[in-house]
């Protein structure tokens, strides 16, 4: 649907099970509000806007009430989905990975996934992640959020049988290369079968987890 400044994909819900999700940066508050109105009117599922600052979020909610804003995740949500009975553990290597993990958890929850966040269990203190093994194994899927050398994804991948989705973050000093080092480490993990998404893409990890639910009985 062409609304002048955007062509809203109204058929995406039929094709993929979810309405189009709006990427907030680069859009004016009025443009975001206009797109959200169309999605709410013409689709039935949850409507999300990612990477939105608090000022823009406030302006959008003033025009399109009924949504909620998660400041930590920078996420706007209208009509969150009912829980699907699919549990996701979101695990961070360090506290600095928190904003990316918050996005992953909030998006997953808005899409109907039950989320548990396990914070600050990086491999520099390996006992921390080993102490959480039972909780990790209870989840239907684990999202691992890690910067620096990104080793936590391999460790978790070697401890659980369920799908592991790795999110490299831009956290780290010089040779961390703003997440490239973690990305390459996760892509070359010796724990076979790990899925890797883009740097800092908590959103992408949550969508990957959601897709795992689509053909479950």
UniProtKB/TrEMBL annotation:
Check the record and name the InterPro entries matching this protein: P2CMN_synthase_LarB, PurE_dom
* Superkingdom assignment: Bacteria
One Gene Ontology biological process: 'de novo' IMP biosynthetic process
Give any GO molecular function from the UniProt entry. hydrolase activity
Q: Which Pfam families match?
A: AIRC
The protein's matches in SUPFAM superfamilies, at most eight in alphabetical order, are given as: N5-CAIR mutase (phosphoribosylaminoimidazole carboxylase, PurE)
- UniProt xrefs under Gene3D superfamilies: 3.40.50.1970
Residues in PurE domain copies = 88-217
Could you tell me which NCBIfam families the record lists for this protein?
LarB
Protein name (database record): Nickel pincer cofactor biosynthesis protein LarB
Q: Which organism is it from?
A: Herbidospora solisilvae
Q: Which gene encodes it?
A: larB
């Amino acid at each position: 649907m062409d609304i002048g400044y955007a062509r809203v994909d109204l058929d995406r819900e039929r094709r993929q099970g979810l309405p189009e999700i709006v990427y907030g940066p680069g859009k004016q508050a009025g443009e975001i509000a206009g797109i959200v109105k169309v999605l709410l009117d013409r689709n039935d599922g949850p409507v999300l806007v990612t990477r939105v600052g608090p000022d823009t979020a406030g302006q959008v909610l003033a025009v399109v009430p009924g949504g909620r804003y998660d400041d930590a995740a920078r996420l706007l949500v209208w009509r969150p989905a009912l829980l699907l009975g699919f549990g996701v553990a979101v695990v961070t290597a360090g506290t600095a990975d928190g904003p990316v993990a918050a996005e992953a958890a909030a998006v997953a929850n808005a899409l109907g996934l039950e989320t548990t966040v396990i914070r600050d269990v990086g491999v520099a203190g390996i006992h921390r992640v080993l102490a959480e093994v039972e909780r990790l194994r209870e989840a239907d899927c684990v999202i691992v959020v890690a910067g620096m050398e990104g080793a936590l994804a391999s460790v978790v991948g070697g401890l659980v049988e369920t799908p592991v989705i790795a999110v490299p973050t831009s956290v780290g000093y010089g040779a961390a290369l703003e997440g490239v080092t973690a990305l390459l480490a996760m892509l070359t993990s010796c724990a076979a079968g790990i899925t890797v998404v883009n740097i800092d893409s908590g959103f992408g990890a949550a969508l990957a987890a959601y897709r795992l639910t689509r053909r479950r009985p």
